[in-house]
DNA sequence: TTCTCTGCAAACGCTTTGCACGGAT
DNA sequence: ATCCGTGCAAAGCGTTTGCAGAGAA
């Protein structure tokens, strides 16, 4: 946790207990959790935690570049602490979101003149290997 | 409109007046409208129109492959009648969504074995040419 | 008749806002 | 003393659902 505190501090975020735990929950999983998921995960250990804090903290992380928003399903916003270039695959059967690598440069679209992209995201929706193999959810 | 009626019919959708008009509103613009936008556009001419009808009709079009959902901003769902392969760029300043071409094959990501993508979408968020040129709004 | 479509109103789920308390600076 | 972070409750917004009436087949 000491590491995390220093990491948040150097990004300009005061390392409060809640922020440390929320960052830990986000960075420690590949599940691309939503605010609700993180809230429910931490609640048993931090009974006083409120959803408001989770939402505002995730917004703070996003503003400071520690997390990326993944609006892959129009239902709930998901977050990813991995801000490097990669794609996201959502299984329409089980709902899980997976990372997948993308060929370098393939995400450098030829935008019309004058357009400047700050965020580039590649989304896929389909069926994951587990669900395709017949494991219903 | 005759054309549109036949088009909907051959896709297995009964061409009611509302459906024709909603399809027309969607296909006749490059604005990637939301349900609310279409509703407000048609309301003056179809005063009895309800949001419910717009929502259910757009869902119907999506199910039948006449429209694609674009969850580019996690706020409201946008729709596109152009189902061909292209990218979407959202200007974070003015909120408009633009199409842009993508190099053939660049949207064929190397998914892990067993994964099968049905929908592939490339999203960018940034500043459009007009906003970059200083036109606030 | 029977089935589908439409539309109103209410409900729902995710997220944001207003406000007050408490702790840090 | 001031500022910032937290948390509760309520509101907000996009969307879906329940239900009834109108219309097509």
Which range does the strand content of chain A fall in? Answer: 15-25%
Helix content bin of chain A: 25-40%
At the fourth level of CATH, the homologous superfamily of the largest domain in chain A is: Winged helix-like DNA-binding domain superfamily/Winged helix DNA-binding domain
Sheet of most strands of chain A: 3 strands, mixed
Structural Rg of chain A: 17 Å
| CATH topology description of the largest domain in chain A | Arc Repressor Mutant, subunit A
Low-confidence stretches of chain A: none
Biggest interface goes to:
A-B, 40 and 40 residues
What's the end-to-end separation of chain A, in Å? 34 Å
Please report the first level of CATH classification, the CATH class of the largest domain in chain A.
Mainly Alpha
Tally of helical runs of chain A: 5
Tally the beta strands of chain A.
5
Gross morphology of chain A: globular
Oligomer: homodimer
Summed over residues and divided by their number, the pLDDT of chain A gives a mean of 90
State the domain count of chain A: 2
């Amino acid at each position: 946790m000491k590491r995390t505190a220093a990491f948040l501090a150097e990004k300009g975020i005061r390392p409060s207990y809640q922020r440390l735990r929320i960052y830990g929950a986000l960075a420690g999983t590949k599940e691309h959790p939503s605010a609700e998921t993180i809230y429910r995960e931490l609640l048993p250990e931090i009974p006083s935690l409120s959803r408001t804090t989770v939402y505002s903290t995730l917004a703070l992380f996003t503003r400071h570049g520690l997390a990326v928003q993944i609006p892959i399903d129009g239902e709930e916003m998901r977050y990813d602490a991995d801000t490097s270039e990669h794609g996201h695959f959502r299984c329409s059967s089980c709902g899980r979101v997976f990372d997948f690598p993308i060929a370098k440069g393939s995400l450098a679209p030829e935008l019309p003149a004058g357009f400047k992209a700050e965020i580039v995201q590649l989304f896929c929706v389909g069926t994951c290997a587990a669900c395709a193999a017949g494991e219903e959810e």
